[in-house]
Amino acid sequence: MLNSNTLDKFAILLSGVCLVHCLLTPILITLLPIVSSSSLVEDILFHQLMLWAVLPTSVIALFLGCRKHKQFMIAAPGIVGISILVAVAFFGHAWFGIVGEKVATSVGGLVLALSHYLNYRACQDATCEDNNCATKHHH
Questions:
Q1: Residues 22, 28, 29, 30, CA torsion sign
Q2: Contact criterion met (CB below 8 Å) for 65 and 4
Q3: Residue 119 sits in which domain range?
Q4: Structural contact between residues 131 and 13, judged by C-beta atoms closer than 8 angstroms
Q5: Strand, helix or coil at 23?
């Protein structure tokens, strides 16, 4: 069963994949000039496709986590991170150029990953109010 902890871990992984992509793409374009001709279209497509995975994972994980630990401000950096990623995926190249787009995407991903880490930790620290709780808590 998917729970907030599993989704938070998956969302952090997705942020890492995005960060690695943003760091390696400029290097690959420099080393393999043949890649550069189609890289802009593929890069835009990559960011938009990542949103299909990031958006539902992040929204569900943060919602479930906040419902469990009641620390709703943990979702604030998540909302900021998601907003940055959405804006950059659709307008980043036009607004910031290639390098600025990478930086903005990396910042958005890191902010979102931070929110998921905080959500994960808060869920681990939450005390279960149900005496029949089967969840293993790490206190």
A1: positive
A2: yes
A3: 4-124
A4: no
A5: helix
User: Residue type at 122?
Assistant: A
CA distances from 96 to 25, 29, 74, 112 (A): 16, 18, 28, 20
**62 is a domain residue:** yes
Length of the chain: 139
137 is a domain residue? no
Q: Which helix (H) or strand (E) holds 46?
A: helix 33-69
Is residue 39 within 8 A of residue 25, CB to CB? The reply is yes
Distance of CA 13 to the CA centre of its chain: 8
Residue 132 maps to a domain: no
Residue 48, helix vs strand vs coil: helix
- Per-residue pLDDT tens listing for the chain (139 residues): 567 788 888 888 888 887 777 777 666 656 665 555 555 556 667 777 888 888 888 888 889 888 888 999 999 999 999 999 889 888 887 888 878 888 888 899 889 989 989 998 998 887 655 555 555 554 4
